[in-house]
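Researcher: Before we compare anything, I want clean individual predictions. No alignment, no superposition, just each chain on its own. First chain goes here; please echo the sequence and then give the structure tokens.
Model: Echoing the first chain and its structure:
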Amino acid sequence: MGVLMSVLDEEKYDLFFGYTRDTLIKATCLNLIVAAADTTSVALTWALSLVLTNPDVLRKGQDELDTKVGKDRIVQERDINDLVYLQAIVKETLRLYPPGPLSVPHEAIEDCIVGGYQVKAGTRLVVNLWKLHRDPRVWSNPSEFKPERFLPQSGGGESVNMDFRGQNFEYTPFGSGRRICPGIDFSLQTVHMALARLLHAFDFDTVGETVIDLTEGSGLTMPKVTPLEVHLKPRLLVTLY
């Protein structure tokens, strides 16, 4: 807040693009707080849905939590770096269901040729991240939920060195370069912590005999077409809840 107030000098500028300084500061602060809420909740819903439809993944995730954290306390932020399999679950979730399946639009600044296509200067370009993340030329069994592909020591591992931060252009769930999502750290921190605490603290049962529907809905953040409904059963000491 102090930085914004010092940058937007009220005495020097009366209006910024038609808005007052206070309006811009309020809008910026609000955006910082709520901008990642929708994408984060959608990512967490997909992560839980994928884990619950793959019992072996759920077991491995809970075993890691029981080993690294124990069952006599709850997960803390300092534990996340040690939870390698949990991080792989999040990476694989964001590969299959990136927070924004289409990238932020870019504009070609000069005539060029991309993949054999002529692109004129001024053309608006959008990258289909959903398709990129499922390209069989890059990913083995691309439609399969396989966190092990991000682990070095197991049968997968072909993508072990890929990171979220846009250094690997075949895996860019948050975009890349100067236009990378500014909320990446907040989003990742929230998803890792929420997923870790849920898997650590509860066992899950689907409602009735219902199989979890993985159909994709429409929208900028590609939510599930149906809500995720499960029963939770505590698996830790009652004093921890």
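Researcher: Okay. Second chain, same rules.
Model: Second chain and its structure:
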Amino acid sequence: MMNKVWLQWELDPPAFSVDEATRAYAEPLAAFRHHRLLREAIPAGAWTCTECGETRQVVFVADVDEIKQGYIACRDCGVTRLHPDQLNRVAFDTGRVLHYIFADTKLDVRQIVADRLWQIGRRTIATRSRELWFIRGFGPTFHADILRQLTTRPKTIVFTPSEATAHYWSRIIPNTIIALDNTVDREEYQLWLDWNAVDDRVLESEESTAPVLKPAAKRSSRTAKIERLVEEIKKHLRSAADHAQATSDREGCPTLLPRPTQEQLGSLAGMSKVDVSRCLKDDSANELRILWETAGDLNAILGLPFETFR
């Protein structure tokens, strides 16, 4: 049940009906309610009929006391009056939740991308002082804004509500990403972050990407190759953006310009397929890897601020 609570934080809105919060989810939400980490949200505008399973728009009608009551109307089931607790909702107050869960850090909670990305503060993790950030949800509408913020902060530790979001962003940004549903413990009215588990996760991530020492000359050569590949991928992304726009105008639906193979990319940059593979795996090639993944994702291409490549 607690996993469902964390997943709900990813949704829009990240809300529960009052009925859910006080009944079905009363136990897992007890700490959130006790510490006032939930806020009032806009009442639901639609409701699923329990008889036919169809979702209907809620119509609000004032009664004799001028109190608005919600109703849904089904062709076969008739009119159903809904209890206010079924429509009134409470939602996660993300800023307050972050202040509470990360209270034992050097807090500087600030919203960076509206309702999606927050700076939390700093804490010493695995013997180093680290920046801590938080992402909620995923999708193309704010993908580029988050990418702009985090690609220049590869050492920042990023937290998400659920493992699902952590998995999604781990394929896009270079940061260590940790899901709260795996690291927050709960007991009655208390929630706390297991920092030992966080330390272990960070150490595990850093060990898996530990750099192998290279001779200086080879390092310099590899860096130059990575830079050439970045430029070629950026050229492809410009073409892919133009292609998507053109097909959208012509056919009503944008299509993806196929990403070049590693062999084709190497040919464009004047190097072998093996060179391309090694560059993509290089620890310093975060930008190259992100651009490479973006070139295969139409939604990411549509969302990227391509003026930065021109």
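Researcher: What stands out in the second chain?
Model: The radius of gyration is 24 Å. Additionally, The chain has a mean pLDDT of 87.
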